[in-house]
Design a protein that fits this description.
Blueprint: H1 3-10, E1 57-58, E2 61-62, E3 65-66, H2 69-77, E4 88-94, E5 105-111, H3 116-128, E6 132-133
Length: 135
């Protein structure tokens, strides 16, 4: 039996009643209806992607100086001349010690869809600043 025929059989309304006029029968809206199958032939442009493995690197200094707001801004904009895609910014935090409620560990980061050229520029800048790759 081909798949379309099987799906057509499944698409029929299902009822447990032999006598549709009986009080115990569900209303027609309560019948099980399965959505129709997608087109038999997928479009030509349908493709599936496989995500590559993630990599992460961190730096503790930028151009030999501790990283503060100015150095953070420089790290973000250093390769803007190569590409400046839209960013998705993240803010994360947690309280590392409940005995010290005024201290928080805060993470500020950004993600983007970058060209290979922009990635290479950023990679070189991180490497120049002694980036450590996380396992």
């Amino acid at each position: 039996m081909n798949i379309l025929r099987s799906l057509a059989i499944l698409a029929l309304a299902v009822s447990a009643c032999d006598d549709p006029g009986a009080n115990a029968c569900p209303e027609p809206e309560a019948a099980l209806v399965i959505a129709p199958p997608p087109a038999a032939d997928p479009p030509d442009d349908l493709t599936f992607r496989e995500q590559g493995p993630p990599h992460a690197r961190y730096v503790e200094t930028w151009n030999g100086a501790p990283i503060h707001a100015k150095q953070f801004a420089d790290a973000v904009t250093v390769c803007a001349k190569v590409g400046d895609p839209q960013l998705l910014l993240t803010l994360s935090d947690y309280d590392p010690d409940v005995a010290k409620p005024d201290d928080r560990v805060v993470g500020v980061g950004g993600s983007m869809i970058a060209s290979d050229e922009l990635f290479e520029c950023l990679f070189k800048r991180w490497a120049y600043n002694d980036a450590v790759e996380l396992p």
